[in-house]
Structure formats: C-alpha cells, structure tokens
Amino acid sequence: MKYTISALLAASLLASGSLHAAPQTFDFDDPKGVNSISFTLDAPLEQINGSGKGVSGTVTFDPENPSETTGTITITTESLTVTNDTMRDHMLGEGWLHADKHEEITFVAKSMSDVEETDKGITAMLTGDFTLKGTTKEVTVPVTLTYLPDMLGARTNGQAEGDLLVIRSDFTINRSDYGIKPGQNTDKVAEEIELRLAIAGAAPDA
Questions:
Q1: CA–CA gap between residue 62 and residue 185 (Å, rounded)
Q2: pLDDT tens figures, 27-55
Q3: 148 by DSSP, 3-state: which?
Q4: Among 48, 58, 73, 94, which is most buried by a count of CB atoms within 10 Å?
Q5: What letters, b where the CB count within 10 A reaches 16 and e where it falls short, cover 164-176?
Q6: Does residue 196 have a pLDDT over 60?
Q7: For residues 25 and 71, what is the distance between their CA atoms, to the nearest angstrom?
Q8: C-alpha atoms less than 13 angstroms from C-alpha of 49 in its C-beta half-sphere
Q9: Is the pLDDT of residue 86 over 60?
C-alpha cells in the first residue's frame, strides 16, 4: 500500500510539473539570421554605430535553477559591419580588430548573482570571460533571461517545436583593455564601446 501511495504521489507531481525540470541546452545559431549584436562608439567628433550577425553558441538553462546557467556565445569578427565601407575595412584591419588573426569574439558564462524573477523575465548579474582581439578579461554584466516554453513553433512557423530562451544585455567595455589602439584617435573613436544584444536560442523537442 505504501508503495502504491508513493507511486501515485510521484505521478501526480510529474503531471503537475512540480518536480524540477531538467536543464535544457539552447542553440543560438539562428537559421533565420535574426540574432545579432549592436555596438556604439560615441566620440566627440563622430558616433560609430554597427552590428554583427555571426552569432552562435549554446547555453544550458534550468528554469527551476537559473543561477546555474552556463554557456558560450560567439560572434565572428568578420560579421561586424558599420555604415561606411572604408571605416569597416579599417575596423577589421590589423591595426584595430585584426579579424584575419582573431576570428571570434566570445563570452563564456561562469556564474550568476543577484538573480530575481520579474515581469520581464529573470534578471541577474552575469560574470564571465569576454575575449576580444585575443585578450580575455573577466567582466560582470547585467542580463535578462526570458524563458518561453513551447514557443519555438511560433518563431519557426511550425517547422519545429520546442522552447525558446531569449538573452538580453547592455554593457560597456573599454577598447584599451583589449589592446585596440590604446589611447589613440579618441576624438573620432571613443574609448568606450557600448554593446547590446537580444538573441534567441532554441531547444527543439526530442
């Protein structure tokens, strides 16, 4: 009898979703090509605005335990673009980002703190290793994670079913910290680079 009651209780908990869901791995290589980052450098003489679409990576997320979120997001350096073609050539050239040698920009998530649930999703401070032009620095940035169960079908027009995870973050880095012409050309190229991302990852149903 005790065994039967225990079995029924376990089945009830499973049916109601009360047991912890297993962590899921979300793929940010978006076949729609919508995922992108944007950046701004606001110097006294010029404001430079650009974006990058070469986003990929995976993030492991458990909606029942979001503080254990881990993963890596990568952007191909060559995918970065600005409105002026000559300026883009300079940006990707050896003196600035040297895209031929440093092909990727990465953020490796290590830990989360100040985790809170809000009406916009889960907000937290995310600490990780940010690598740009071959230099890695530990940074802590604000992040919002929005978990959207069973919404992959809406994003793919029914071509795939599963869950979505949207990551949003706005943060600033200093180009001198990453060896990008430290202290040079500051009248036209700001020292601070403002980065913004809003990217969606997919966890298709098995």
A1: 45
A2: 999 988 899 999 999 999 999 999 999 99
A3: strand
A4: 73
A5: bbbbbbebebebe
A6: yes
A7: 9
A8: 0
A9: yes
